[in-house]
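Bench log. Compound arrived from synthesis this morning; before running ITC I wanted a structural hypothesis for how 5-S-methyl-5-thio-alpha-D-ribofuranose sits in the protein. Inputs:
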Amino acid sequence: MQSYKFSGDEDLITFVHQYSDLFKAEETLQVEEIGDGNINFVYRVSNEQGVSVIVKQGLPYVRIIGEGWPLSQDRVRIEAEALQLEAKYAPGLVPEVYAFDAERFAILMEDIGSFDNLRQLLVTRTKLATLADDLATFLAKTLFYTSELYLDSHERKKQLAGFINPDLCKITEDLFFWDPFCDHERNAINPLIREDAAKLWNNPTLKLEVAKLKRSFLCDGQALLHGDLHSGSVFASQEGTKVIDPEFAYVGPIGFDVGSIIGNLLLNYVAQFNQEGDEAERAEYRHWLLEQVKTIWLGFSTQFDALMAQETKEVTLQGAEYRQWYLQQIFADSLGYAGTEMIRRTIGLAHVADLESIEDEGKRAESERLALQIGERLILQRSVVSDVEQLVNMI
Ligand code: SR1
Ligand code: MG
């Protein structure tokens, strides 16, 4: 397989000089590898004054597995183009792309080092002032402006063709909709909840509903999704939010993005029952998390509805009844995908620090059981929960 990997610090520095004039040729630059994701390599290049940029490179395989799990490098182009589109529609909410190099499968982009990873912030129970509003805006704008509601037929087909992304979609097909619903060798299951997992594998009603969600993931090309909107793909501070890493971008069902982030907030919610620290503080944080779920849904749906009414090009798709029907479908899908995210992060291959940081296996099992129960309910009841208030009461 033809591929290019940066050979070392000098090579990375040459790459940075080639695409940016941020640094002088004679400056001493420092290179650190900072990536802790599953798939790619990420480096920070900085000078002594603290000026820095990020280089992200994708090799033709999954980083944490190695060459045994090959992966198309076209994902790097997809990430660069998705970031550029997101920047156009949701300015300030993604890092700026400075350059994309198609030969080296690398992106040079803004360093968002003053923001912290949302998953870590949630584990340490940090309340974030603008997070829910920012995520609502990101979702409403990126999803509306890349949907059939806004694009004309030709633009839409072009977008579809540019973001086919079969390798990354296949990861999601397997890790969300197949592995966790059978006794798959890729699964990682706390022995204390194996029986709970087996109950899901033996529930035909649940498997039928998961199959319907999978069909929608495979076939319903509503908008250009981020495609992997979990807490690790969000960086935040008290001043703002940055969404990173859209290498899974493809044209799919809107509820997949909305549900992924809601599912991640709920994973932290269940973890907070058994995390370290004062129970009153944890209870208060759980309450805050549910408030964020409400704010995200209400902010997203209000903005999306207004965009539908004001900016939809096709007149038959602007009416109030159609808008209400459309948003109700997205709500149901979002609950379903929040449910599959909770289940796959609990018994599938890729776990989350929210649960994994609970050291006591027994306590972790309690939170994991709750994740499976809520996940199952979200999937089964997604069409009967009428609004976000009812959702929060159900949880
Ligand atoms: C092998 S990749 C595992 C997970 O990491 C990515 O961020 C996606 O969430 C994927 O499902
Ligand atoms: Mg990622």
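What the model suggests: Residues 37, 228, 233, 245 surround magnesium ion (ligand 2) (CB under 6 Å). Residues 279-311 form the longest helix (33 residues).
ITC booked for Thursday regardless.
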